[in-house]
Amino acid sequence: xxxxxxxxxxxxxxxxxxxxxxxxxxxxxxxxxxxxxxxxxxxxxxxxxxxxxxxxxxxxxxxxxxxxxxxxxxxxxxxxxxxxxxxxxxxxxxxxxxxxxxxxxxxxxxxxxxxxxxxxxxxxxxxxxxxxxxxxxxxxxxxxxxxxxxxxxxxxxxxxxxxxxxxxxxxxxxxxxxxxxxxxxxxxxxxxxxxxxxxxxxxxxxxxxxxxxxxxxxxxxxxxxxxxxxxxxxxxxxxxxxxxxxxxxxxxxxxxxxxxxxxxxxxxxxxxxxxxxxxxxxxxxxxxxxxxxxxxxxxxxxxxxxxxxxxxxxxxxxxxxxxxxxxxxxxxxxxxxxxxxxx
Length: 343
Description:
By secondary structure, the protein is mainly α. The protein has two domains: 213 residues, Rossmann fold (3-Layer(aba) Sandwich); 91 residues, Tyrosyl-Transfer RNA Synthetase. Helix content is 54%, strand content 6%. Helix 9 links the parallel strand 4 and strand 5. The longest helix has 30 residues. It is globular, with a radius of gyration of 22 Å. It starts with 9 loop residues before the first helix and ends with a helix.
């Protein structure tokens, strides 16, 4: 007699996994800081979780954008997701603007969010100082849209950096407030606490985080910078008045270069110290630059292959938008019914 094997369908198996949601703004090409700090870590999550990785183009327009550039940078970012190793068959990767439920839920949640809560958001204050000519309502209500992004998919876990922790706390507060009124509607999300990677700093001001919006192009390395550009930017990186490399907090420029090497090679900081401490700055920069180029080249090669295959990328955009809309609508229908909107 044949023994019956108890198997789960792929859909049942998928449902048992926790859901992770994250995304990046589609403004310009991402830096190695974005790559090592987020994107490369996302790749490690895709087998263990149900993952949604959004190109958050709705958030991008809180700052004035040139339409053609925004359209292209959104497409490039999606191609980079795939080039970095995210499998479009395992993950839902889509444009935020292609799923109107984000904006619709954002309006509803805005009616359950207090002005005082938004007034406390430090990122609004910081961005307002940078964009004094365009302090718009979208910049103020940005955290509500972020809450909608997360809650729409019954997200269990959200990978967040230091600058987004406050927004996740607000998302949790809104979810709990709504649930207290209407019952168990939203999953209350928790931060994803993974292995802490190095925080990549500016090459010109190593006490500041690397940013693609930095006016000094030598301060950051784009994931698509050509090898000679990478080598030159590393060569120009600020160090200090000493002559040999030591990994120490009071030598942030050298520490940053060694962190970049550790990220590019996958070596621990201890192994990195063994390999690089005591090197002269010329040798240090050459070794770091070459390791970084070696890490970036296969990603760049795959990126340009994907870009050339327009039909392939278009099919992924269409299919993933449909999947995201289906999932989002399940939550939104429930929300609308709870608050009394007519069916």
